[in-house]
Amino acid sequence: MDGVLVVNKKKGMTSFDVARYVGKILGTRKIGHTGTLDPLAEGVLVLCLGEATKIAELITAYDKEYIAGVKLGIETDTYDIQGKILKEVKVPNNLDIDSLLKSYKKTYYQEVPIYSSVKVNGKKLYEYARAGEEVILPKKEVSIYSIECLDKNYDTFTFKAHVSKGCYIRSIIHEIGLDLGVGACMNSLIRTKQGNISLKEAYTLEDIEKGNYKLYSIDEVVEFPQIIVDKEIEKKIRNGVLVENKWNIEDKVLFMNKNKELLGIYYRDNNYLKTWKNFNFER
């Protein structure tokens, strides 16, 4: 079983739990997720199965879109509503949320939250937090391409954001709380898009149990040019041989044979194309 499955994750499960559960349903151990969603979060979780696990890093790197709910006046250690409350204040009713969000459309170095699985010196950050140990939190360059308020009350609001890989919505909300001077934490999160893969294409676990799902092929989800080659070049690709870049490929390319079988993904190396991933589908 080779391909990509889009799951509509429910609250309460970890991404690993979902991948393991789907693997049991479909009878495969060769499965992995692309882009972790916290147990509180729901929405698009892309799973790669079989040979498609080779492209997991590509899908993980795609931009993402979220709809997030914010609770103002409360600051927690995890930056979400399920964490330990560190600060609680009364929220004024004249906060200018819209103007502040406009200033968040930017590229900057975002501090990774302490309750995350990012490793520092071989140890996950949340392990430092649970042990009460101090650690310097790393910062990663992220981009917020767009962010807009969808609705608001005096102490809650919802926003939609389009962000780069590695951007923590919890951290954005924490920063918003600091800028407003009242504190804030995330109380809901839905991932609505990952690359061009949207929530409309996602299946619930109940759908998958009933066999009501579509497994997308690698060429359907990878956004590179697709080239059909003759038998001579097909042989070179299957053997991992360099291929002359006569198609003027700038980045990566998917090579297929005349039967539309995916052979491999190659990348540009000066005037040649070099193997990035080769695929061995059962024939």
Describe the protein's topology.
Elements: E1 3-9, H1 15-26, E2 31-34, E3 42-49, H2 56-60, E4 64-72, E5 74-76, E6 85-88, H3 97-102, E7 107-111, E8 119-120, E9 123-124, H4 125-131, E10 139-152, E11 156-163, H5 169-180, E12 184-194, E13 197-198, H6 205-209, H7 218-221, E14 226-228, H8 231-238, E15 243-244, E16 252-256, E17 262-269, E18 272-278
Parallel strand pairs: 3-12, 14-16
Antiparallel strand pairs: 1-3, 2-3, 4-11, 4-12, 5-6, 7-10, 8-9, 10-11, 12-13, 15-18, 16-17, 17-18
Characterise this structure.
The longest helix has 12 residues, at 15-26. The chain has eight helices and 18 strands. The chain folds into three domains: 3-62 and 196-219, Pseudouridine synthase; 64-193, Pseudouridine synthase, CATH 3.30.2350.10; 225-278, Archaeosine Trna-guanine Transglycosylase, Chain: A, domain 4 (Roll), CATH 2.30.130. Strands 1, 2, 3, 4, 7, 10, 11, 12 and 13 form a nine-stranded mixed β-sheet that branches. It starts with a strand and ends in a 5-residue tail after the last strand. The model has no long low-confidence stretch (mean pLDDT 94). It has helices at 15-26, 56-60, 97-102, 125-131, 169-180, 205-209, 218-221, 231-238; strands spanning 3-9, 31-34, 42-49, 64-72, 74-76, 85-88, 107-111, 119-120, 123-124, 139-152, 156-163, 184-194, 197-198, 226-228, 243-244, 252-256, 262-269, 272-278. By secondary structure, the protein is of the alpha+beta class.
